[in-house]
Design brief:
The complex is a heterodimer of chains A (120) and B (453).
Chain A: E1 2-4, E2 9-16, E3 19-26, H1 32-38, H2 41-47, E4 56-61, E5 66-71, H3 92-97, E6 100-102, H4 105-110
Chain B: E1 5-11, H1 20-26, E2 32-35, H2 42-52, H3 61-76, E3 79-82, H4 89-102, E4 111-115, H5 123-128, E5 149-154, H6 159-166, E6 171-173, H7 181-191, H8 198-211, E7 238-242, E8 248-252, H9 262-270, E9 279-280, E10 285-287, E11 292-297, E12 300-304, E13 307-309, E14 314-334, H10 338-355, E15 362-368, E16 386-395, H11 398-405, H12 411-414, E17 419-420, E18 430-441, E19 448-452
Parallel strand pairs in B: 1-2, 2-3, 3-6, 4-6
Antiparallel strand pairs in B: 1-7, 4-19, 5-14, 7-8, 8-12, 9-10, 10-13, 11-12, 14-16, 14-17, 14-18, 15-16
Helix pairs in contact in B: 1-3, 3-4, 6-7, 7-8
Classes of the chains: A alpha+beta (120), B alpha+beta (453).
Amino acid sequence: MKVQLVDIAHARSGDKGDTANVGVIALEPRWYDVLDKFVTRESVARHFNGLIDGEVERFELPNLNALNFLLHGALDGGGTLSLKTDAQGKVYSTALLRMTIDVPDAEAARLKLPAMKATP
Amino acid sequence: MTKVVRVAAGQGFWGDDLDAPRRQVEGGPIDYLMLDYLAEVTMSILQKQKERDSSLGYARDFVGAMESVLPAVIERGVKVIANAGGVNPPACAAAVKAVSDKRGGRNRLRIGVVTGDDLLGRLDELIAGGHPLDNMDTGEPLASVRDRVLSANAYIGSEPIVEALEKGANVVITGRSTDTALTMAPLRHEFGWSSDSWDKLASGIVAGHIIECGAQCSGGNCLYDWRSIPDLANVGYPLVEATADGSFVVTKHPNTGGLVSVPTVSEQLVYEMGDPHSYITPDVVADFTTIRLEQQGENRVRVSGIKGKPPTNKLKVSIAYRAGFKAVGSLVYVWPDALDKAELADRILRERLDRAGLRFDHILSEFVGATAAHGRLAGDQHGAPEVQLRFGVRGHDRAAVERFTRELAPLVLNGPPSVTGFAGGRPKVEEIVAYWPALVDKTVVRTHVEMVA
């Protein structure tokens, strides 16, 4: 089943130089394992392919039901050098929540994961 | 009875709600008011002000804030801790003292002034002494931009603030203190935490991290169920109620808007997070993977379990330097085919800049309303009813950047149709003051505390 992160997580992002961080937090504690399993460093790097210049790092915070991603080279130089509207990476959070993951149907049913809504 | 110390945040950055400090001291009982004014490039702005007038160089909003909370400080014993001193803490203290004297507070303030973070005058000595101040991100030595440096300040920790409180200060003014030390220091002072009680110091740092951005932990900028967050017009700024074991409750005053919940606090915890195992500060390295959150009642989140470990032998240094010029301008294109028109305008503009022989280090065009924030992830936006072409250039040649600012307006008459939104006039050329993060040995930074009565 296709699941979109916006339906199972919330997020906040910020900056450190030219790196954006995105903290993704499961909306239900039981959904953390799904984030942990399917929102990998590789899948997030693919999601942002072409949109950032650097590597992706991932850290786990199971205590907060959260993952933290560092997106390097995401801010057009960052800080005052950046010409981007989002020079401080404030809305990378929702860009990550656009990501879709494929969860096996049985697991999705067991965890009552909401299916991705059809795009209008 | 268990001793509880209340530290309230009244300012999350320079430019935050001017009335928040007063609301924090009047809305309920607090012991300390913590005001954070400094962002990464704020110091360079203050340095420029100080160069023009040696009595400036601090966050002037703080003087008004002190005036508004003076009765609470004088009559109720609320203490204020702020990094409002910028590059001139003594001048900041003098301005606060002047306003206090005028408002009936003569001899009632004991201001602790923390200095020693300012390294600008010592840069050559430091570089010559084997401290290259390499850029932490790029590895370049500071010598490569040395002649363009505007300010240089070490991020200092809780120790000088604790020292000021021990000397009886009821107002502590620092320069480039870390944001988190402003909250941790009063807890360390009140509970007598030793300099190696890592878990407790780390707890104080986490408390600081949660409240340092003001209402961003109490409902502001919160994505979780955002429609349900009540009365943001009257949002309550956060405070922590801490106990000697390091655990604390995040809450806000009664009869305020916003919300303090596990989701609102969680979002703030991950804000600007790097490696959560190692949140490095001058006093302690906090492990954010040990934080336990628990809803303890309405608008009350208990935070406990935090572990810390010894700090490194370095301090981070915030250096600001001149890095060329930039200008950003925009035009709005409207249905039908709004995005197509904006894209054509972008191509025309690039061609004209090129033909004019203008060379820039960087050009960026964005299509606001379509793809500026999320790029291709936003999907096909060619049906968007209106799109803002936002066009920016950056370079070291000021004349070229100036010339660019004249190239936008002609497009209104000689470019694609259905264009508007140019009433603001030509874009402004801005000098870029960029941030250069570096590390320096702790031993070279000596802080001083001076009491001003």
